[in-house]
Amino acid sequence: MARNRIVGIGMDYSPTSKLALQWLVGNLVDAGDHLVVIHVSSKSDHPQKTFWEDSGSPLIPLDEFKEMNVSKQYGVNKDLKVLDILDTASKTRKVMVFFKIYWGDPKEKLCRAVEDLKLNSLVVGSRGLGVLKRVLLGSVSNYVVTNATCPVILVKGSPTSKP
């Protein structure tokens, strides 16, 4: 039975975000769902930022993302492990996969994506920072859990997590 939900994942291509992606694909999405990989770039000088700074890039289907030179187009490097996980989810779980790229502060842009994309839920990885590091560095996941207007699933990992 297709559910037709829109599920987002915050993706910075760290081991923790890849772990969160694997959890998401294995436990949450199903046939008919849309999975949106949300990447927030801090490259403030990228030319596309001028066009898409407020709204983020258009939704990019997985097949198109795999084919295009996204590094040149949007300033994002392809990660073969992530693409393999998503390709498998697309084919075996019948999930429609899209990418959306924002520029700016990840905390704010992930919350913005929840609104823009009308997400039913958002999955983010947590590096498992201690209290002191979280206070000094800030925590994207902490901010998103507190401020997003949809359910947020936090997948815990450690700095040495390997998907």
TrEMBL record:
Q: Where is the UspA domain positioned along the sequence?
A: 5-156
InterPro entries in alphabetical order = Rossmann-like_a/b/a_fold, Universal_stress_UspA, UspA
Q: Which domain of life is it from?
A: Eukaryota
Q: What is this protein called?
A: UspA domain-containing protein
Q: Which PANTHER family match?
A: IMP2'P, OS02G0773200 PROTEIN
Which SUPFAM superfamilies does the protein's record reference? Adenine nucleotide alpha hydrolases-like
Please spell out the taxonomic lineage of the organism that makes this protein: Eukaryota, Viridiplantae, Streptophyta, Embryophyta, Tracheophyta
